[in-house]
Amino acid sequence: MDEAMDQALGAVGPRLRALRKEREATLADLSEQTGISVSTLSRLESGARKPTLELLLPLAKAHGVTLDDLVDAPPLGDPRIHMRPVTRGGMIYLPLTRRPGGIQAYKLIIPGGERSEPTPQVHEGYEWMYILNGNLRVVLGEHDFVMKPGEAAEFDTRTPHWFGNADGRSVEFLSLFGSQGERAHLRAKPKAKGA
Predict the structure, then answer these.
(1) Using an 8 Å Cβ cutoff, are 188 and 148 in contact?
(2) Distance between CA atoms of residues 48 and 44, nearest Å
(3) Mean of the per-residue pLDDT values for the chain?
(4) Among candidate residues 113, 129, 110, the one with its CA nearest the CA of residue 177
(5) Distances (CA, A) of 177 to 35, 105, 154
(6) Residue 188: its pLDDT value, please?
(7) Backbone angles phi, psi at 151, to 5 degrees
């Protein structure tokens, strides 16, 4: 087990160097961002210094990766973190984000087949949807409408809501969901010059 751990830790340096090069950052840039000295960063990347949690946490944050990605941990634990599809309520959810908290992104697929009766639900949060393929029937409060590919909607999830296929065919759509009510702010057109 010690040999496997040494191999995993030995691979961190090259991975850190590759991540920094991808970002086109210098050791000085990374030092300024993390508060870790240039010499320590250099020694980490070359393998002359063993990585510690105290060093890896700010580096993972600076590079925008998880600790698991940084140390190439095997895919274990909570499946939601590993982008595996989940089937819930007859819908297939494919997580598109790995960042815990904040706004979460999903691709949802409602398989074709018989249309089900609406059973509106409520919960805390705010949702933004964009239809990719198929026709989505949406029941939102007292409104009942069909969304087509290219259409988008946003709403407070405390409003009773339900989604289903409108015509028995499968539907694919993107969903951004903020559990604390964060709203997705989108601009339809650029500001005019001088505005």
Answers:
(1) no
(2) 6
(3) 81
(4) 129
(5) 33, 6, 10
(6) 53
(7) -95, 150
User: CB within 8 A of 60, min separation 6: which ones?
Assistant: 66, 67, 69, 70
Q: Where are any strands of DSSP class E within 38-160?
A: 86-88, 91-95, 103-110, 126-133, 136-140, 143-147, 152-156
What's phi and psi for 189, nearest 5 deg?
-145, 155
What pLDDT digit, counting tens, does each position of 33-61 carry?
A: 899 999 999 999 998 888 888 888 888 88
What is the rounded distance in angstroms from the CA atom of residue 165 to the CA atom of residue 26? 51
Indicate the residue type of 79. P
Residue 137's nearest CA partner among 168, 159, 108 is 168
AA letter at 72: D
Among 158, 124, 159, CA closest to 139: 159
Give the Å distances, CA to CA, from 97 to 30, 45, 94, 116.
24, 28, 9, 29
The two structure tokens encoding residue 154: 């946003």
Give DSSP secondary structure letters for 21-45. HHTT--HHHHHHHH---HHHHHHHH
Amino acid, single-letter form, for residue 191 = K
User: Which residues, at least 6 apart from 109, have a Cβ–Cβ distance to it below 8 Å?
Assistant: 91, 92, 94, 170, 171, 172
Token representation of residue 70: 């940084």
3, 58, 61, 75, 190 from 48: Cα distances, Å: 17, 19, 22, 27, 50
